[in-house]
Amino acid sequence: MSVVIKQSGPVAEEVIQLVTRERVSALSAREWKHRLAGYGYSIRDTHDGKHVLETLPHHVALCELPSELFH
């Protein structure tokens, strides 16, 4: 059973910190996504331009990622 993490709260903040740390370490967006896959996460782009972090392999949405990570 998958657990959906709400966008706010200490667990979501820790996940976003991990995602941010990996973005700083990665040389490209492709490498960043590969590194996140190693942790069991993927990034899904929505039709309205947002980015959602989700689990692998079941694609359960965890939280929306800040747009600053993509610029």
Structure description:
The protein has helices spanning 10-25, 29-39, and strands at residues 41-45, 51-55, 61-64. The protein starts with 9 loop residues before the first helix and ends in a 7-residue tail after the last strand. Helix 1 (10-25) crosses helix 2. A hairpin with a 5-residue loop joins strand 1 (41-45) and strand 2. The longest helix has 16 residues, at 10-25. With 71 residues, it is α+β, with helices and mostly antiparallel strands. Residues 1-5 have low confidence and may be disordered.
* Sequence of secondary-structure elements: HHEEE
Strand content: 15-25%
* Rg from alpha-carbon coordinates: 11 Å
| Helical amount | 25-40%
What count of helical segments does DSSP give? 2
Secondary-structure content class: alpha+beta
Report mean pLDDT, rounded to a whole number: 87
| Number of DSSP strand runs | 3
Shape estimate: globular
**Runs with pLDDT <50, length 5+?**
1-5
**How far is the first residue's CA from the last residue's CA?**
34 Å
Task: Give a quick summary of the entry.
The chain is α+β, with helices and mostly antiparallel strands. Helices cover 38% and strands 20% of the residues. The protein is globular, with a radius of gyration of 11 Å.
Layout of secondary structure:
Elements: H1 10-25, H2 29-39, E1 41-45, E2 51-55, E3 61-64
Antiparallel strand pairs: 1-2, 2-3
